């Protein structure tokens, strides 16, 4: 067996030899040439080698798959107007005001860094206020801005800059924001847009001030993310500042995030360059005015929750890793809701809290939620009206159970 050990050891030692790297690069060069020949009919002068290599890396150096991905991207860019979006597009006032974001500058490698304070990211509010296509166009506008920054940094530094990074602050991101069905659907649309049209552009995404339940969001979004993208995610609790300073100069990083930078007036949040967004007022929910009430849709169930009382709606989950989605509304006044796992013993029944109770204004717009159940069993939504001394509440609701890997959503 010694010969086998020596053979394995020789192979391992030779993995990084110049000869092997030459062979790998030669193979990749050949595949790049095949891709360039396959798409010669749509080639543009600014499509350099790095451009073609990004599509190949995104499809594990399969020229056929890379070509298909690239052609779909060209159709997308034409439809959304990406080539001229930086000059002929003006963000709608509501999106510009309430969508949190800010460009702070390059990291130590010259890669652009954008901050996204998710604390006040009201995706649910956007769903009811503007068309989904407007949100996706706005985000395309941001992605194209980042590419322009890369191009300018490439000229300034004399080296190729083709990646960017994000700092996503989720401090104060609530259960309601994390599990809202409409918000998650919108988030997944954004992820799909980025993965399909901006491959191999991400250097690192730093998620900071991450609460324990943020894994709910990541687990529900994994079907829309490649393994390569997931490996670029770095999650931190409150101990993120030293990690950011390893990659980003202190004079670039706002003091609010652990650097030295402030606004001219000393503001550590650097609000002159970072829009922290905010919650969209319900009176801006223009789209909701044209949507019929949930109670008029098919497949809706109605229950009555008496005053100073609550009701459990049990949900039977048949398999591992099932996604439970719900949507509900009340005709008048708010109600509280939580999500639970039912446990039956010989002499008692208990409900273990999975999502805490929270009062929601579901009489203004329908409220929705999502939870990934890791095991089969009986789960339950708890509609709680115990705080109301005078009024009983009618609740109209729909529930859907599906595999967590399915991309469909409940209607």
Outline of this structure?
The protein is of the alpha+beta class. It contains 13 helices and 14 strands.
Describe this structure as you would to a colleague:
This protein has 411 residues and is of the alpha+beta class. It is built from 13 helices and 14 strands. The strands form three sheets. The chain has a six-stranded mixed β-sheet. Helix 2 packs across helix 3, helix 3 (49-58) packs across helix 4 and helix 7 (123-129) packs across helix 10 (181-197). The longest helix has 26 residues, at 132-157. The N and C termini lie far apart (61 Å). Residues 1-14 and 406-411 have low confidence and may be disordered.
- β content, as a range? 15-25%
Q: How would a crystallographer describe the biggest sheet?
A: 6 strands, mixed
Count of helix runs: 13
Strand order of the largest sheet: 5-4-3-2-1-6
Question: Tell me, what's the shape?
Answer: globular
What is the number of beta strands? 14
Structural class: alpha+beta
Distance between the termini: 61 Å
Question: What are the segments in which pLDDT stays under 50 over at least 5 consecutive residues?
Answer: 1-14, 406-411
Helix content: 25-40%
Q: Give, in order, the helices and strands.
A: HHHHHHEEHHEHHEHHEHEEEEEEEEE
**Average pLDDT for all residues:** 86
Rounded radius of gyration (Å): 25 Å
